[in-house]
Amino acid sequence: MHISRLFTTLLLAASLFTAGCSTLPPAGIHPVGNFSLTRYNGNWYEIARLDHSFERGLTDVSAGYSQNSDGSIRVLNRGYDVGSGRWKQAQGRALFNFDPQTASLKVSFFGPCYGGYHVVALDPDYRWALVAGNDRNYLWILARERQLPVEVRNALLQQARSLGFDTNQLIWVSHSRGQP
After folding, report:
1. Overall pTM surpassing 0.85 (yes/no)
2. CB count, 10 Å around CB of 115?
3. φ, ψ at 149 (rounded to 5°)
4. C or N terminus of the chain, fewer CB within 10 Å?
5. Phi-psi category of 126—alpha, beta or left, where left has phi over 0 and alpha has psi -120 to 50?
6. What is the rounded average pLDDT of the residues 176-180?
7. How far from 68 is each of 75, 80, 116, 131, CA to CA, in Å?
8. Which CATH architecture fits 25-172?
9. Please, which residues bridge with residue 115 across strands?
10. What pairs with residue 50 in β-bridges?
11. What is the per-residue pLDDT across 76-110, written as a single tens digit (0 to 9) for each?
12. The pLDDT of residue 22 is above 70
């Protein structure tokens, strides 16, 4: 009886850990197709995000993407921590969930657990992107420039709302410093 209960507890813990590492998009959200990693590579500025602990208090946030020799994607996130007065950065690794033409990836910064990264809207010229995580608590608006035209921003907000994201909770990221 004791071993059975221990096994059940371990199985439940493993299930919860695995569920927390989901990399698939939330129901009803579809990543863009005809995706080109070559065109997506390079530097992106974070225009807005839903709050989460690993970027809390950061301004001037950017993300750089490049292909590694093993086919994975190098992700380098940078931001200025106002509280400490210092730049912070985290390097991660991303892999495609499906085929490389579908903008659905899994990204890891801290070990074996991956999080979802799904481009759900993308400018034809790769000037801006709307990116969802593995649930509706993660959303980013990214752009090649530090600001977006108002009409683009409004269209992305409308699309995010239609996908079930609470856009009233978005943090609009200031970009007043140059990159380190």
Report:
1. yes
2. 21
3. -60, 145
4. N
5. left
6. 79
7. 10, 26, 19, 22
8. Beta Barrel (2.40)
9. 107
10. 170
11. 999 999 999 999 999 999 999 999 999 999 999 98
12. no
Contacts of 30 by beta carbon, 8 Å cutoff, 6+ apart: 120
Closest residue by Cα to residue 52 from 139, 113, 129, 130: 139
H/E segment holding residue 151: helix 150-162
Tell me how far apart the alpha carbons of residues 3 and 11 are, in angstroms, rounded to a whole number.
12
Identity of residue 72: S
Q: Please give the mean pLDDT across all residues of the chain.
A: 89
pLDDT given at position 26: 86
Per-residue DSSP letters for 15-76? HHHHHHT--SPPTT----SS--HHHH-EEEEEEEEE--GGGTTEEEEEEEEEE-TTS-EEEE
Q: Give 22's contacts (C-beta < 8 A, 6+ positions apart).
A: 116, 134, 135
